[in-house]
Task: inverse folding
């Protein structure tokens, strides 16, 4: 009964394969998936997810840092790994050593990289309105100069959509403006002889809401794992995705709580009547947000049980008064299915006033990740 430990993650590889197929059907045949496996593959476990994706024939990945890329190389990943963020000059040698493709965050960064020893594969970031990383799309003259650095092998050009998940008219209009700015920049670069690079601008919602776009790569992130940022999200594409991750734990013990007694740190919950409570072996060090104190839910034997009291570092408490036959060792589901009920990552996120991306990417490293096929 305890073979899966105190708290763990189950990864459904069949669902991952299914989601990959759905995006391959959705996007043009010429568009290759470049899954985002940053932040430990959104909490799923980057090495195991990337290996499984490589087994499916995917050869391109993107990460946030050189360190994440090195972890994948050490795990045996052989395909292209694009570092989407900044890499310190102190790590430039590792870009070559581990065959990582570096993002050019602006012209000054390109110059700095070019002045270091080594040859580097790079993708040039173009700022089309997010104003985070990338050289401004209108600065064609400056962008062209990046091609003059002989030790920078430019294999890609990309941008980021910042309102692709939006359904309002202003959000859609801004996304279309970004796409137009990107296309104009790419066309201008090619007119000036800058060629031989691939293009990408779509993340998950860029693909789901603008599937008709025809670029070389699509950086699918949260949706590849079968999750939406928020439960109310609606997308243009009529696509059915399946969650890859389930988060589970176990009941440690069951106790009675008498009327007027309070529970947990700070005594933030007081029983108005006699209750039955369950201590569960999971907490905020495992990734359960403290924000869910006295407001979250979990599934026990297929039934919803409210979280009561404060979420602790290693434990939390549930009200199981309405459940029968609850005992130590029973499985508790925080994300996933139990019986006929299900809690999605987006529901957990909404209860914690955040998005699924944050909930999943903050799942703790001490959670064992177990592969399942069905």
Result:
């Amino acid at each position: 009964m305890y073979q899966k430990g105190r708290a763990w993650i189950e990864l459904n590889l069949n669902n991952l394969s299914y989601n990959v197929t759905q995006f391959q059907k959705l996007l043009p045949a010429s568009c290759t998936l470049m899954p985002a496996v940053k932040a430990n593959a959104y909490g799923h476990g980057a090495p195991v997810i990337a290996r499984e994706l490589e087994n499916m024939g995917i050869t391109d990945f993107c990460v946030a840092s050189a360190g994440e890329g090195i972890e994948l190389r050490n795990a045996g990943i052989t395909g292209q790994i694009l570092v989407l963020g900044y890499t310190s000059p102190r790590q430039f040698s590792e870009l070559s050593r581990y065959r990582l493709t570096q993002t050019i965050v602006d012209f000054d960064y390109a110059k700095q990289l070019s002045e270091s020893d080594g040859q580097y594969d790079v993708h040039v970031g173009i700022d089309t309105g997010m104003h985070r990383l990338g050289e401004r799309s209108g600065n064609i003259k400056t962008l062209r100069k990046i091609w003059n650095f002989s030790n920078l092998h430019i294999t890609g050009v990309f941008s980021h959509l910042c309102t692709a998940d939006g359904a309002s008219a202003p959000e859609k209009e801004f996304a279309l403006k970004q796409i137009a700015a990107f296309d104009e920049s790419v066309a201008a670069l090619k007119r000036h002889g800058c060629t031989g690079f691939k293009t990408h601008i779509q993340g998950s919602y860029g693909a789901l809401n603008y599937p008709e776009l025809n670029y070389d790569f699509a950086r699918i992130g949260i949706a590849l794992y079968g999750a939406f940022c928020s439960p109310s999200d609606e997308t243009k594409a009529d696509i059915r995705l399946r969650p890859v991750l389930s988060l589970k734990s176990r009941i440690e013990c069951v106790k009675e709580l008498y009327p007027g007694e309070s529970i947990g740190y700070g005594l933030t919950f007081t029983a108005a009547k006699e209750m039955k409570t369950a201590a569960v072996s999971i907490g905020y060090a495992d990734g359960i947000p403290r924000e869910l104190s006295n407001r979250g839910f979990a599934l026990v034997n297929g039934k919803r049980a409210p979280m009561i009291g404060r979420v602790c570092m290693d434990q939390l408490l549930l009200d199981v008064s309405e459940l029968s036959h609850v005992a130590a060792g029973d499985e508790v589901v925080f994300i996933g299915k139990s019986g006929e009920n299900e809690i999605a990552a987006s529901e957990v996120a909404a209860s914690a006033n955040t998005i699924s991306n944050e909930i999943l990417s903050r799942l703790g490293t001490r959670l064992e990740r177990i592969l399942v096929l069905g």
User: Anything to note?
Assistant: The chain is about 25% helix and 25% strand.
